[in-house]
Design brief:
Helix content is 91%, strand content 0%. The chain has 57 residues and is mainly α.
């Protein structure tokens, strides 16, 4: 996987986790849901990149 894309996707997943944790701590369900969605988006992008890498080899 391209290093820059991998880092960007991992950062997005981490950012989502932080939002989810903050939402849980403050009781903000909206922020918690946004965090989960952002995590899923980052994970999905990582999966696509891994599949592309697998097909290249």
């Amino acid at each position: 996987m391209a290093g820059g894309k991998k880092a960007k996707n991992m950062a997005q997943t981490a950012k989502g986790k932080a939002k989810e944790t903050t939402g849980k701590a403050t009781g903000n369900e909206s922020l918690e849901a946004k965090g989960r969605a952002e995590q899923m988006k980052g994970d999905a992008k990582q999966t696509v990149q891994k599949a592309k890498d697998t097909l290249k080899h």
